[in-house]
Amino acid sequence: MKVTFLGAAHEVTGSCTLIETCGHKFLVDCGMEQGKDIFENQSLPVAASDVEFVLVTHAHIDHSGNLPLLAKNGFKGSVYSTEATSSLLDIMLRDSTHIQMFEAEWRNRKAKRSGEKPYEALYDMEDTEVILSHLRPCKYGEKIRVLENVEIRFTDVGHLLGSACIEIWVTENGETKKMVFSGDVGNINRPIVNDPQTVEEADCVVIESTYGNRLHDGHADNINTLAEIIERTFKRGGNVVIPSFAVGRTQEILYYIRQIKAEGLVTGFDGFKVYVDSPLAEEATKIYIQTNIDSIDTEAAKLVREGINPFWFDGLECSKTSDESKAINFDESPKVIISASGMCEAGRIRHHLKHNLWRPESTILFVGYQAEGTLGRIIYEGAKKIKLFGEEVNVKAEISLLPGVSGHADRDGLYNWLSGFKNKPRVFVNHGNVESCDDFTEYLKERGYDAFAPFSGTVYNFFEDKLEVITEGIPIKPKEFAHEKTRKVHTDLVDTVEELLNLAKALDGRSNKELISLTQ
Questions:
Q1: Where in the chain is the domain with CATH 3.40.50.10890?
Q2: CATH 3.40.47.10 is held by the domain 2-215+407-469
Q3: Is residue 175 a contact partner of residue 283, using CB atoms and an 8 Å limit?
Q4: Does residue 439 sit in helix, strand or coil?
Q5: pTM (predicted TM-score)
Q6: Residue 136 burial (C-beta neighbours within 10 Å; 0-12, 13-18, 19+)
Q7: Tell me: domain 222-401, CATH 3.30.420.10, correct?
Q8: Reduced to 3 DSSP states, what percent helix, strand and coil does the chain have, rounded to the nearest 5?
Q9: pLDDT digits (tens, 9 = 90+) for 100-145
Q10: pLDDT by residue (tens digit) across 228-267?
């Protein structure tokens, strides 16, 4: 069996690994790279049509986002994942497709004016519909034969609803060996999802290292901290604006607020409103509500059995249309606004920032990781002014962070999960930046593990337990980051156009003379 590491090798996104055994070929994850690409990634070294199936650890786009592209290139096999992951893929891949098509439309308008070649989207909705028709939902703990010599099993790792590590048994020449892919290992004591479950045996393990050299605050009291932030902000007459990821993090925040309201932890503001301003988050929440009760933790399951919706409470409102979104900022009462995107790079959150950043009475509350270079990171690190919709906005609001809500295990959590194996398997470390990946690898070596952090293109012979190809990381040249500048210009353009449209609508009823003068 040959294992080729392709994506998330010394990088945090783009997870993808090719496995070849007895003439068969399949992938573990098929993720899209997000944010800055640091190293060149080797492309899939076989034809997409030769890939017989894909095993998906969870629905996040950095593990699943290139599945429609695989279908576009000729893949016709099955996509195995847990039941909840299949449900989430149905909405998240559609959302990703809309983004690809919108970007292509904008680029082609620009290309037409400048005489450049047309830009083709990575994939379209037809490709996505094809891949969605190939989803094969699986139950946790069910051993499934996917080839005559390969069996698999999904085990809950508590990162996201439906997330799993994947156990893979392979038989060659009468010998059976087992490889385990951790996927993203979850943090402990988080609401809704179970704590990560361990696996007892493996010959080889591929483990993530997102926080492989860091420790979380293990004493964070999220419920009371959030309640205190809400209460002190409301007492100032401001709003609490929460940039949040639509899937996973938004549901956690709703879960916390339901408890805050049930226990009366925010005094003097009974019935305060909470707006969820993200259609994707609303769709994801429906999936969370409808999921198999065995897929959620005991506290959330207890609420469901008692007929309590863990994500609903009096005062909760969801906005679907852009007009409903804009109306939120005309509500002058203190409120909580939860909106995407989680790093403030695009979407409706930017409107809410414009209306609240300059207000010292408001609070911008970050509840997730803010990548370097993103607007969220810039605000969190103390920017005094930022640019939104073509104008500078003073940052006067309180900027805060809710600690302890990471969906990833820290170094100790990763080590504890790995320690669940009775033996000490061979370990490959991936899905972390250079420092985190290498530091965690050294940490494991010091504790007696045979650990190695591969770069893209590294090939491992599983049954012979040897590295056939060892690659070095090839840094991407700065000029190859030009697309990021394009994205920023594009975002600013969309912001400006939306602002002009709002202005034009506000001028309805003015005289023809006034309107004509504005078009000159």
A1: 222-401
A2: no
A3: no
A4: helix
A5: 0.86
A6: middle
A7: no
A8: 35, 20, 40
A9: 887 788 777 766 777 777 778 889 999 999 999 999 999 999 999 9
A10: 999 999 999 999 999 998 999 999 999 999 999 999 999 9
